[in-house]
Structure prediction request, 457 residues.
Amino acid sequence: MKIFCIAEAIILVTALGVAVLRGLPGPVFFPVRLFAVVYADFFRGIPTILLIYLLGFGIPALQLSGVPTSELFWGTVALVLVYTAYVSEVYRAGIESVHPSQNAAARSLGLSHGQSLRYVVVPQAVRRVIPPLLNDFIGLQKDTALVGVLGVIEAFRQTQIDQAATFNFTPGIVAAVLFLLITIPLTRLTDWLIGRDRRRLLAAAGAPV
Amino acid sequence: MSAVLVLNGVRKSFGELEVLRGIDLELAEHEVVCLIGASGSGKSTLLRCVNLLEPIDAGHIVVNGREVTANGVDANSVRRGIGIVFQAFNLFPHMSVLANVSLGPRKVLGLARAQAEQEATALLERIGLADKRDEYPDRLSGGQQQRVAIVRALAMKPDLMLLDEVTSALDPELVGEVLAVIRELAEEGMTMLIATHEMSFARDVANRVCFLDAGVILEQGSPEQIFKAPQEPRTKQFLQRIVEAGRL
Prediction:
């Protein structure tokens, strides 16, 4: 749960950063856009468990000085890297779904590209992508179990320990229930938000709700 | 009278299609010029080029004596002095009317919130929409939205206003209230370049009418001259069709 909360907070910010980098205009920013594209392709293409393995066992094994050796730290970093890639694509879709005329209106007032994003485009984009964002966070919540391969004692790892001691699958069921207790309310919240947006759209279009 | 806007041989293509094929035009201070012409004749593109929303391929655009199409000109500072109003209003749907109008003055001109909102309210009062200042755009009629869009542009205290078919997306009964606001601006001496399909409005409000055809200004003159005694066959043909459609 702690892994999830820390990772989620970091991802929300970094993913927006990657999405914004990818949308920078002009040839000057080509390398930056390229970086954002390569980043998203790379970290969406690698299985999460493989990256957790590589970072969690690989980096501490290098015995670099000044680098944390905590498996918990590197497991969280891996999750952040992977989910930032996913979430940046969600943000990008949101930014692109805002009609170009909104940007034109903002720029015509003299706002810079950054100001237009900050005050006009991103606020509208974020409202639109809240449901898919929550969807990704349900995924992230479950994937925290993968950090267990590093020996970090999260819920799933704990059940394996208990099972090995007692030959009893009850701890597994308890862990599953614990995960569901978190993910189901999140899922319902997502549904509710989607429904609310739909009602608003219909109301604005003058259609019966 | 000094020229607020000078266009010199302006050309613009979208891919293979050349939309503007050498536009020369000059607007003096306090002058109201209406651009008429069929859809696709380049009216909107011309306005978007003046506001640097579209880069031009050739020619020069000079605003208040400063060449804005030169290399290294800060487009944001140019746009600050030019107001544009779009056919589809383009209000920011996630902001209240007041926030829409005060965003530019606050973030671009650097006004404090209180002052920007006070000025915005005063402008809204002038068009009779002060009581809607806390509403969101989707709660307003099309005519009200377009009037707010005009005020949003005015809040930047522009030297030049560009109006791009501002009544084309409106129900007929809402056109009048928007035209009344524009007429008032003209009387106050605002320099305006107006692309429009409202011929009777152009006749009333314009100092000069330009007929655009296939990316060039084919004919220009006073409203009487263009509407009563057009010289070019293409102009005659265009006006004939307008009259037949009952729009003049």
